[in-house]
C-alpha cells in the first residue's frame, strides 16, 4: 500500500549563538503513515514534537531530509493537511462560523461555497448552535472544537494535531478524544497526533511512535493491539494500561546524555 505520509531522514537544527552548528532538535527521523492510520507521537517536552509536526504541515522546512504527502514533497502548507495546535488561535472579532471559514478565504475561495460544510462541521463537533457566537463566548473545549472544524473545512486527507487537548480539563479532554475518534472514522482521515500523554496516545492511536529526548530520534514504535471503533471502557482497560506502562518504561530507559537537555 502507498503510504499517505512518508518522513525520510528528517533532521532539524535551530540557529544558536553559542554553537556554530546550531542546536539539533530532530535527528534522522524516518517513518511512514498508512492511509486511514492514526499515529500518535510521544516524547518528553522539548524533544522536537512540535517542530516535527510543523515540518509535516509544511510550516517549517527541515534542515535535512524530506516529507512526502501523497507522494509529493511537502514544501509549503497545503489544503491536503489540516492542522490543530494546542491553543485554538481563533480570531476574536469573527463569529465561530467565520472562523471556520477562514481557510477558504486564505485560499481565495468563495466562503459562501463553504458555508454549508462549515455549518455541518460545527454540527458534527457538537457546537452547531453556536455558529453566530464569538470565541470569547465559548469555553476552552468549545473553542478547540471550532479549531477542529476549521482544520477539517477543506477536507484534508491528513489531520495534524499538536497536543490539541492538553490545555483542557480531564473530563472535557475525554469528551473531545471521543469526538475526535468519531470524526476521524466518519471522514476516514489519516491522523498524526502529538501528545505527551501516553494514556491518550494508546487509546486513540493504531501505533505510538516514541521519540528520544532532544535531539528527537525514533526510539521505538508500539502497535496498539485494539481494533476500532474504540470505546471509553477500553481507555481504562488492562491491555492499554500495560501498553502505556511499557512505553513509559521505555521512556525512562533512555535518560538524555548529560549536558544535552535544555
Ligand atoms: N523557533 C525556534 N528557535 C529556536 N529553538 C527552537 C525553536 N522552536 C523550538 N526550539 C527548540 O527546539 C527544541 C524542540 O522544541 P519543540 O519542537 O517545541 O519540542 P516539543 O514540542 O517536543 O516540546 C526545544 O529545545 C526548543 O527550545
Ligand atoms: Mg510542543
Radius of gyration: 19 Å
CATH architecture of the largest domain: 3-Layer(aba) Sandwich
Helix content: 25-40%
CATH topology label of the largest domain: Rossmann fold
Give the helices and strands as they follow along the chain.
Answer: EEEHEEEHHHHEHEHEEHH
Looking at CATH, the homologous superfamily of the largest domain is P-loop containing nucleotide triphosphate hydrolases
What's the total helix number? 9
Task: Give the strand order of the largest sheet, numbering strands 1, 2, ... along the chain.
Answer: 6-7-8-3-9-10
Topology:
Blueprint (H helix, E strand, L loop, with lengths): L4 E12 L2 E15 L4 E5 L6 H8 L7 E6 L2 E2 L7 E4 L11 H5 L1 H5 L4 H14 L15 H13 L5 E5 L7 H18 L2 E5 L3 H7 L2 E5 L6 E6 L8 H4 L2 H15 L10
Helix pairs in contact: 4-5, 7-9
This protein binds adenosine-5'-diphosphate and magnesium ion.
Adenosine-5'-diphosphate binds next to α1.
Amino acid at each position: 500500500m502507498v503510504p499517505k505520509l512518508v518522513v525520510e531522514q528528517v533532521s532539524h537544527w535551530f540557529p544558536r549563538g553559542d554553537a556554530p552548528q546550531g542546536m539539533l532538535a530532530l535527528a534522522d527521523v524516518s517513518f511512514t503513515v498508512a492511509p486511514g492510520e492514526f499515529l500518535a507521537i510521544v516524547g518528553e517536552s522539548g524533544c522536537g514534537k512540535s517542530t516535527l509536526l510543523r515540518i509535516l504541515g509544511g510550516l517549517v522546512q527541515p534542515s535535512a531530509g524530506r516529507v512526502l504527502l501523497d507522494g509529493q514533497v511537502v514544501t509549503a502548507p497545503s489544503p491536503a493537511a489540516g492542522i490543530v495546535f494546542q491553543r485554538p488561535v481563533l480570531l476574536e472579532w469573527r463569529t465561530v462560523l467565520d472562523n471556520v471559514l477562514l481557510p477558504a478565504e486564505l485560499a481565495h475561495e468563495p466562503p459562501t461555497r463553504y458555508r454549508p460544510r462549515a455549518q455541518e462541521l460545527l454540527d458534527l463537533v457538537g457546537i452547531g448552535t453556536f455558529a453566530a457566537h464569538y470565541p470569547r463566548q465559548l469555553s476552552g473545549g468549545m473553542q478547540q472544537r471550532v479549531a477542529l472544524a476549521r482544520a477539517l473545512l477543506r477536507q484534508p486527507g491528513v489531520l495534524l494535531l499538536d497536543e490539541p487537548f492538553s490545555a483542557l480539563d480531564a473530563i472535557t479532554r475525554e469528551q473531545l478524544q471521543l469526538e475526535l475518534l468519531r470524526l476521524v472514522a466518519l471522514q476516514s482521515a489519516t491522523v498524526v497526533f502529538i501528545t505527551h500523554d501516553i494514556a491518550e496516545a494508546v487509546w486513540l492511536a493504531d501505533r505510538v511512535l516514541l521519540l528520544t529526548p532532544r535531539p528527537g530520534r525514533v526510539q521505538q514504535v508500539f502497535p496498539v493491539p485494539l481494533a476500532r471503533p474504540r470505546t471509553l471502557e477500553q481507555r481504562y482497560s488492562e491491555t492499554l494500561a500495560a501498553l502505556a506502562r511499557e512505553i513509559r518504561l521505555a521512556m525512562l530507559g533512555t535518560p538524555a546524555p548529560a549536558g544535552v537537555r535544555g
